[in-house]
Amino acid sequence: MELTTAELARYLDHTNLKPDATQAEIEQTCQEAKKYQTASVCVNAHWIPLVKAQLADSPVNPIAVVGFPLGATSTAAKVAEAQDAMNAGAEEIDMVINIGELLSNNDTFVQSDIAAVSAAVHQENKLLKVIIETSFLNNDQIVKACQLAEAAQADYVKTSTGFSSAGAKVEDVALMRKTVGDRLGVKASGGIHSRQEALDMIAAGASRLGVSATVKILEEN
């Protein structure tokens, strides 16, 4: 797959979720996103007001993560966190499923947890991505997580937080795309460090990539 640098940039959620990220580093992330015209800047919700202000004169969207990185907060807390982030200017929400409940086969809970956040997000006409944390899941569980996210009316399924034992894998992205077809987006995130890795994820079916190595990827020849 061949893409121009500008075309590739539009796939990228330029990400800075480091717990020790400073204001200056978040501002730098925003300036880089504006320079390359990435799809978005993805940050922890505290930084959304700053990111919104930094991106005000650009088409780059602010994204906040919710229930991050463990997914084990209550549904009410996730909804409140999403609402607060949207009130502060987030245009997209990336939430983490309750991984333990998925592994316990409590499918009804997992779907309702996603659906509650989905309802809040869509009431504001924003986008919801659901992080299923593929490194904890086998293929059957990946398929089930995608199906539950679709049933809960999510807009995207996403591979990883980047805080677990492994990030995105091409085969997982392909399986997720096969499961959701063209009905949902698929976001690959975690461990994408080169232009070729990014292109491989897109070729496998990713419609968005979460990356912190954005500048390196886009400046590779």
Radius of gyration: 16 Å
Instruction: Describe the global form.
Output: globular
Tell me what portion of residues adopts beta-strand conformation: 15-25%
Using the coordinates above, name the CATH class: Alpha Beta
CATH architecture: Alpha-Beta Barrel
Can you write the helix and strand succession as a string?
HEHEHEHEHHEHEHEHEH
How helix-rich are the residues, as a percent range? 40-55%
DSSP summary, beta strand count = 8
Low-pLDDT stretches: none
Could you report the average pLDDT, rounded to the nearest whole number?
97
Which sheet architecture does the biggest sheet show?
Answer: 8 strands, parallel, barrel
- Strand order across the biggest sheet? 1-2-3-4-5-6-7-8
Query: Any idea how many domains?
Result: 1
Span from first to last CA? Answer: 15 Å
Put simply, the count of helices is 10
Q: CATH topology, which one?
A: TIM Barrel
Say which CATH homologous superfamily is assigned. Answer: Aldolase class I
Structural class: alpha/beta
Task: Briefly characterize the structure.
46% of the residues lie in helices and 17% in strands. The protein has 221 residues and is an alpha/beta fold.
Could you explain how this protein is built, in words?
- The protein has helices at 5-9, 23-36, 48-54, 75-88, 99-103, 107-123, 139-151, 170-180, 195-204, 214-219; strands at 12-16, 40-43, 61-66, 92-96, 127-131, 156-158, 185-189, 208-211.
- Helix 8 links the parallel strand 6 and strand 7.
- The radius of gyration is 16 Å and the shape is globular.
- It is of the alpha/beta class and 221 residues long.
- 46% of the residues lie in helices and 17% in strands.
- Pathway: Carbohydrate degradation; 2-deoxy-D-ribose 1-phosphate degradation; D-glyceraldehyde 3-phosphate and acetaldehyde from 2-deoxy-alpha-D-ribose 1-phosphate: step 2/2.
- One of its GO terms (biological process) is deoxyribonucleotide catabolic process.
- InterPro entries: Aldolase_TIM, DeoC, DeoC/FbaB/LacD_aldolase, DeoC_typeI.
- One of its GO terms (cellular component) is cytoplasm.
